[in-house]
Amino acid sequence: MTGATGYDATHAAWRRDPQAFWAEAAGGIAWDKPPERTFDPALGVYGRWFPGGWLNTCHNAVDRHVAAGHGARPAIIWDSPMTGQVETITYADLLDRVARLAGALAERGVTKGERVIIYMPMVPEAAIAMLACARLGAVHSVVFGGFAAAELATRIADAKPRAIVTASCGLEPGRIVKYKPLIDAAIGLSPHKPTAVLILQRPECLCELTPGRDADLLDAMAAATPHPCVSVEATDPLYILYTSGTTGAPKGILRDNGGHAVALRHSMAMVYGVGAGDVFWAASDVGWVVGHSYIVYAPLLAGCTTVLFEGKPVGTPDAGTFWRVCEQHGVKVLFTAPTAIRAIKKEDPDGTLLKRYDLSKLDALFLAGERCDPDTITWSEGLLHKPVVDHWWQTETGWTITGNFRGLGLFPTRPGSGGKPAPGYDVVVLDEAHQEVPQGQIGSLAIRLPLPPSALPTLFNADDRFREAYLSAFPGFYSTADAGMIDAEGYVWVMSRTDDIINVAGHRLSTGAMEEVLAAHPDVAECAVVGVRDTLKGQVPLGLVVLKHGVTKTEAEIGRELIAMVRDRIGPVAAFKEARVVARLPKTRSGKILRATLRKIADGDDYVVPPTIDDPMILDEVGEVLKGAMR
Ligand code: COA
Ligand code: AMP
User: Fold this and answer.
1) Which of 24, 75, 331, 423 has CB atoms 3.0–4.6 Å from 281's, for a disulfide?
2) Where is the AMP-dependent synthetase/ligase domain (predicted)?
3) Which uninterrupted H or E stretch holds 279?
4) Smallest CA separation from ligand 1 atom 2, residue
């Protein structure tokens, strides 16, 4: 930007004049009315990007390409080994389907600013529903299909949607997940009731429609009048994505229209080195931020072809699936979670399946979502003979905080590090006294305000919670809740979370939320949930419970009941499969459970026995249980 090339020059150019950098990037977006200012520090909680600018995100992602004569270009390739189907949707098809669904939603009272919950498996209609909301200026909130009814209910209660877009079922290997009972239960539990539910009837499992509320999604689209794009202000919300917070109540991460469109479109060239017509595949789920940003919005904003994959890295049908998709669709850049590569590596350690496919079009593999072990990087580099880039991400930012930048020329990677800060982010490592620590020393990773475009301006309806959760720990900085260090050459190493979040197979989960469920069991006196190391999933949750006096059930019986409760209240995605009964939990003399110390033991990290500990013997007892649970 601003004449700079290469990572160092571009980062320096951004640092010299951040506003000029982002003003230039904003030139990539078709504005209905250009922004009055690039950034206004006086607006919102810490300032707002592109105030006074008007645009429509769907127009930029879809209509604009059709108007430019690219209607015949594939926009979405849906590849579903779960059903054996592959469908290519051109930009012109996509425009028609999105405009119709927008019309169907508008007929049901969805207008600018109204919320719509999308609870969908990985089918094209999930992306179409997101874009239809964007078209109307409505605010979508996608809920991952692996969450249970109670979690869905919390999100319905908080977002207060006018409508829900869903499907009759999701498909998991070996089982059909019926969505209708989950939707009905969630609406039953929520004090807020949406007035319309649009359901995609999948042939694998049709469902009954509730009269007066439900409609068949495809019928509704066929009957609808296509709706034009509604112009919104850059600072108007595009979506809410709920993510695990430190308490059971999820945080509604808010994304605006203008900053999001600018940063995401720009990132496709700068971070991934792809442009219009290239095939980009983020093997994630639309329920997660990676799915929002890199299955749907960014590739379409850049005019790419995006692959929407309904399957798993292994078992659908085998560990060669990812490579088959790359060959068949000519994928240029693949983005997935390290856990997916570990799963493939476990089943196909020598790359026998990989070698069956022609991967000459694949230029790079990007990994994110959890800390990536160096082995996974070196294994994939060794077999692919392509750059493998680890980049550090959060739902809150919407695009990468650190990485390596294909569009700027890659610098050498260092396995175990998430790369260097993206232009736009001033990343620092702070100590408890809010001072920057020397290079190479571990501390709290923080980002100097303002955050770049696309990062959350606040939480939905919760400015105070936003300040408290992210801005209060280090005044003037956004606290990432990750600990790590920056080395002498500027590489950032993300080591662990500083809160109760664990990362299970790339899925972000709160141990606090699981503790709330365990504590509700009538036989449990107290409990702690910690993430223990797992060679496949990175971390898995382990429940430690102390039983009430006089309980005679066995550990196995209690364990089964607790596992069922977590599955029922949070969902199968929590992967809560193990609970151990312990006599006592380690505590301070004032009675606080030493969760941070338990986490360190579970991570296999060095720890000091806290001076405030009540009885150090208990730490040894529980430590043995944790070590025994590591895989
Ligand atoms: N709807 C319903 N249930 C779901 C679901 C969905 N969308 N996604 C996952 N689940 C269920 C699974 O069926 C499984 O249930 P089970 O306990 O009955 O077996 C449970 O949730 C845990 O799922 P998962 O964590 O996916 O584990 P797995 O053992 O099925 O598969 C991997 C392991 C590594 C193959 C898988 O975790 C994976 O593909 N990970 C990649 C994650 C990813 O892309 N993350 C996005 C961040 S970039
Ligand atoms: P999510 O919001 O689900 O994307 O999860 C964000 C969290 O995942 C971060 O705060 C980190 O703890 C972790 N994470 C994501 N990407 C990486 C990475 N490349 N390296 C280390 N940790 C990561």
Assistant:
1) 331
2) 65-449
3) strand 279-282
4) 146
- Peptide bond preceding 586: is omega within 30 degrees of 0, i.e. cis? no
> H or E segment at 530?
strand 524-534
- Is residue 119 within 8 A of residue 145, CB to CB? The reply is yes
The verdict on residue 110 lying in a domain is yes
Q: Are residues 131 and 201 in the same domain?
A: yes
Spatial separation of the C-alpha atoms in residues 576 and 567, rounded to whole Å: 7
Ligand nearest to the CA of 315: 1
Atom number in ligand 2 closest to CA 501: 12
- Smallest CA-to-CA distance from 287 within 85, 510, 507, 572 is with 507
Domain of 399 in residue numbering reads as 3-311+391-484
pTM, entire model: 0.95
Q: Are residues 77 and 112 in the same domain?
A: yes
Total domains in the fold of the chain: 2
CA of 282 to the centre of ligand 1 (A): 16
CA distance 505 to 573: 9
**What confidence tens digit (pLDDT) does each residue in 407-434 have?**
999 999 999 999 999 999 999 999 999 9
Same domain as 548, residue 476: no
Question: Tell me, what's the pLDDT at 108?
Answer: 98
Q: Is 145 in the pocket of ligand 1 (CB under 6 A)?
A: yes
